[in-house]
Structures are given as structure tokens and as C-alpha cells.
Amino acid sequence: MKRPLLLLGLAAALASCAPALVGPPTGRIVNTSNGQEGTVSFVAGSLQPRSGAGRLENNVTIQIGEQTYVGRTVIIDTASPVPSPFDLGLQFNFGNTWNGTGDRDPYYGVGGTARTPAPRLVSRTGNLIARTDGNASRTLTCTLTVDAQEHGYGECTDSGGVRYALQF
């Protein structure tokens, strides 16, 4: 009887780790003028804010048709908690009750509540700059908006002025 419970507990422990084993963020990019779609692949952790000037290696690959762009993202940590409104409640009670002798006793009551809801996090902003290899290299620049779970969207423009929409 102990063995099945032990195996069930082990399976539950492994299942709780499953979200941590998810691969790097991927997404899609779409040419806004002709609808051509491509893919975007980020290195795990590249959509988190950076401290200092380190870690400037390429961390994103974009495939649009036959073109492969490789570049970097930089996310700025501007995600401060939005101040939540202060929740305040105040109560006043007045009335009369009958006591055991048949007389009326007035009563007064004052009550209050004060609480601060949990702060809501806002998204972070950043950019992405990528280019193709070769003599006639093309450049793609994007502005990004990213949440804490590394999901987001952006707008891109290539060196020819073509605009793209980005989701990941």
C-alpha cells in the first residue's frame, strides 16, 4: 500500500515542476502589407530585464520567408507596481433595543475597514534589432511590450520600410 502512495506522491512532485520545463518563447511575425507570416524564437530569459551592460549576445532568431534575421532584445525594467486604490469603509449604527425590564436602551456603533489590494504589475517595454547575414544585409527593428510571463507583442519595420506585427 505504501508503494503506490509513494509513486503517486513522486508523480505529483514531478508534475508540479512541469511549467518550469517549458521551452523558450516563440511567436509569429506578420507582414502588414501582404500578410506573409514568419516565426520568432527567443532564447530563454531574453525577455527579462537586464542589469548592467553584459549579456549582449544574439538572443532572437526571426524567419520570414527565405530571410533569417538574428539579433538581440533589450527589455527595460519599468514594471513597477501600479498603486492600487486604498479601500476604506466606515460604518455608523444607531438604534434602540428593549432590555429585560421593558425599557429601551439606545446603542451606538462605529466600525471601519481598511485594506490595500495586491498591486497589479504592468508590462515592460524594450526593443529588438536583428539583421540578415551577407553582403546585402537587411535590418529589422522592433518595439516590444512584454509581461512577466514573457508573453507580448510588438511592431517592427525593416530597412525597406515594410511594417510587421509581432506576437509571442
UniProtKB/TrEMBL annotation:
UniProt xrefs under Pfam families: LPAM_1
Keyword vocabulary terms for this entry: Signal
PROSITE patterns given in the database record: PROKAR_LIPOPROTEIN (PS51257)
Signal sequence annotation: 1-22
InterPro entries: Membr_lipoprot_lipid_attach_CS
Name of the protein this chain belongs to: Lipoprotein
